[in-house]
Specification:
mainly alpha; Helix Hairpins; 3 domains; two-stranded antiparallel sheet; 19 helices
């Protein structure tokens, strides 16, 4: 039996890694989504033991695998316990990475792997060429288990008085801990976490899980090594944060601060008018964190001021950081774009960050990501305006949910939801946006397009007027 499993595993992985890492990622996510949709369509996945419409099952499966959190069916109202566990499994697989989990399982059965296998996995998880990919994968799995377990324990003690049994409380806690760490935003409450807007424990736990999962596994490992050396060792070579970690942490802190101040100032005279200072502070912190692609909410999103909604859309578009569980164009992309603009204004030939130059290839990739994502969002919003015009959906509502889908956030102001009147075509458009947002526009394009070998020649340069 073991030999058969190993042989089947070799065959499947040989087929998966025959092409590029981009195509491998696209195919692995697509297969997981289709399998999840098939399971969610079955009668025992719903509480009423009826077949779920394929388009709704596909939407939910995509939202779970792409760790988005947008809904067309109520999670506690429509899905059975089996259906909820299926969604939870899809969230975990999508958050940690389909190929990451597959590679770890494969390594458990097969000790020796090919060099091409390791190269493809390095491309998928964005690992440095000089580091052992298996050490990084092991760290990713350990961190996921530890963070989710700690979050579940913390949430259990916060919620233990709200449930009739300890088992129900534990199930509730585990589900939300996994959903928060994976930045999925799925909740077993129809109002998400609005009932706990005043809970310091729940707000703190969810926010920490979202931030840890969203800043990226390499940054967390780098930060842990930095803290461990400065607090406990202080021997040998001084440990320093990498330029990537500095950029991610700096941009994350700036975005969180801007989000908190803006929400607190604007909503104190809006949706939070008359609320105690504690409530306004907690809600402002939470709503600055959740656009990191978490998708939970403690306030009514439809009641936000237009300026707050616009800021939230910008934060959702940026999203989290590379090699993490979050979506969006990523904080490092924004940081490099700003550095490139600053370099242009200063007349410098290269973008610079923390006394290091940024490679031109990286700057070109950043420009491509931004242009492709804007084009994809523009096309998606245009199509939604066409398909949802009969339903009377407003532009702001459509744009907000489209950006939420692309950023794999899960926040909604009414286009999607358990009681949505969105057309089947609209659901498929949102599904495509979630899929593209989770993989990234460049990965999606490279995965779908035919790969060509890099040319060994270069054309002569010429001057072209711009600006």
């Amino acid at each position: 039996m073991k030999d058969t499993v190993i042989k089947a595993g070799r065959t499947l992985f040989r087929m998966a890694f025959r092409k590029s890492a981009a195509r491998t990622a696209v195919c692995s996510f697509a297969v997981a989504i289709l399998l999840g949709a098939i399971v969610l369509t079955l009668p025992f996945s719903s509480q009423e033991r009826r077949w779920t419409a394929p388009v709704d099952a596909l939407f939910t499966s995509t939202s779970a695998v792409c760790v988005t959190g947008l809904l067309v069916k109520s999670t506690p109202g429509h899905w059975s316990t089996f259906g909820e566990l299926t969604i939870l499994a899809l969230i975990q697989a999508g958050g940690l990475g389909i190929m990451t989990m597959g590679a770890v399982v494969f390594r458990m059965f097969q000790r020796r792997v090919s060099m091409r296998f390791e190269v493809v996995m390095q491309d998928i998880v964005d690992a440095n060429g000089g580091e052992n990919i298996w050490f990084l994968l092991r760290f990713m799995c350990v961190l996921t288990v530890v963070a989710e377990a700690a979050g579940a324990v913390a949430l259990y003690f916060c919620w233990r008085g709200n449930f009739a049994s300890g088992g129900a409380c534990l199930y509730h806690s585990i589900f939300h801990s996994v959903s928060a760490f994976c930045n999925a935003g799925f909740s077993l409450n129809d109002d998400s976490l609005m009932a706990y807007v005043d809970s310091v424990g729940i707000n703190t736990t969810i926010c920490l899980l979202v931030v840890i999962g969203g800043i990226g596994f390499p940054v967390v490992r780098d930060l842990l090594g930095y803290v461990r050396w400065h607090l406990f060792r202080r021997k040998g070579r001084r440990v320093r944060l990498t330029t990537h970690s500095k950029l991610v942490l700096s941009m994350t802190a700036i975005l969180l601060a801007v989000g908190f101040v803006t929400v607190f100032v604007l909503e104190s005279h809006g949706s939070l008018t008359g609320a105690p200072l504690k409530t306004r502070l907690l809600a402002s912190v939470f709503q600055s964190v959740t656009p990191r692609t978490a998708g939970f909410n403690t306030v009514d999103m439809a009641a936000l001021a237009p300026a707050t909604a616009l800021l939230t859309m910008a934060l959702m578009y940026i999203g989290g950081s590379p090699s993490g569980t979050a979506g969006g164009i990523k904080t490092s992309t924004l940081g490099i774009m700003i550095a490139s603009i600053v370099a242009t204004l200063k007349g410098r030939s290269k973008a610079e960050l923390f006394h290091h130059s940024v490679a031109e290839e990286t700057v070109h990739r950043v420009a491509s990501i931004i242009l492709l994502s804007v084009a994809l969002l523009t096309g998606g919003i245009f199509l939604l305006l066409v398909t949802e015009n009969a339903g009377g959906a407003e532009f702001m509502t459509i744009a907000f949910d489209a950006i939420s889908a692309f950023g794999t956030v899960g926040l909604s102001v009414g286009l999607t939801g358990p009681d949505t009147t969105m057309s089947a075509a609209g659901k498929l458009i949102i599904t495509v946006l979630m899929f593209a947002g989770r993989l990234g526009p460049i990965t999606l394009v490279l995965g779908v397009a035919q790969m060509h070998e890099r040319g060994t020649y270069r054309y002569p340069e010429d001057q072209i007027l711009v600006g």
